[in-house]
Specification:
Length: about 170
């Protein structure tokens, strides 16, 4: 829609002035409805409905992510329980950040840097495995009571791992 001398308004938002046009059909579009593609700005009608390749997770990639998260969780949990069984307090919370990063990064690398909710769940399962295995190896209660920093470390690790694979 055009009004006045050279003033162009968005086809979907008639109150929004714009200088953008769809690279395919030349429809005026505003920043709220523009869809950036690998070939430029498109209107929602012309934009491909396909997800970016980074977010397309085939079953093979999901399997690779599961294996990586479980292996990384088992290795990190066993090493933590064997080498640092008595670490606690603030340092345990800091170690939780490292555990989350290691498992999230392992999952990301194994899936060629894919991302999305299924891989976030897989990474979170790897983190839980690492924390539970750490307690088994260190001969502690599997789920400790009255250890606030263990829970802080777990939450930090989950946040880092999940954030590493966010969309």
């Amino acid at each position: 829609m055009t009004a006045g001398a050279g003033t162009t308004y968005c086809a979907r938002h008639p109150d929004t002035e714009t200088g953008l046009r769809c690279g395919r059909c030349e429809t005026p579009i505003c920043p709220r409805c523009v869809v950036m593609t690998d070939v430029g700005a498109r209107c929602p009608d012309c934009a491909p409905s396909r997800k970016l390749p980074q977010f397309e997770i085939a079953p093979l990639y999901l399997l690779r992510g599961m294996l990586a998260a479980l292996i990384a969780g088992a290795v990190v949990g066993a090493l933590w329980g064997a080498l640092l069984p008595d670490i606690s307090g603030f340092f345990e919370a800091l170690l939780g950040l490292g555990v989350g990063y290691a498992i999230g990064e392992s999952t990301s690398l194994a899936t060629n840097r894919k991302a999305g909710p299924p891989l976030q769940i897989v990474a979170a399962a790897g983190v839980l495995l690492a924390f539970l295995l750490r307690n088994v190896v260190a001969s502690d209660d599997i789920i400790p009571r009255n250890e606030i920093f263990w829970y802080v470390a777990l939450i930090a690790a989950l946040a880092v791992a999940v954030n590493r694979l966010r969309v």
